[in-house]
Amino acid sequence: MVLVEEVQLPKADKGYIYFADITLNGETFTKVGYSQNPNRRFTYDLSEFELDEVQIRFRNIIPMMEWMYDFPEGTPRASYWEEFLHTVMRKSGCWHEPEHEFSGSTECYLLSPREYKAAIDYLEEQLQMMAPPNGWCIPYSMD
Question: Superkingdom, according to UniProt (predicted)?
Answer without folding.
Answer: Bacteria
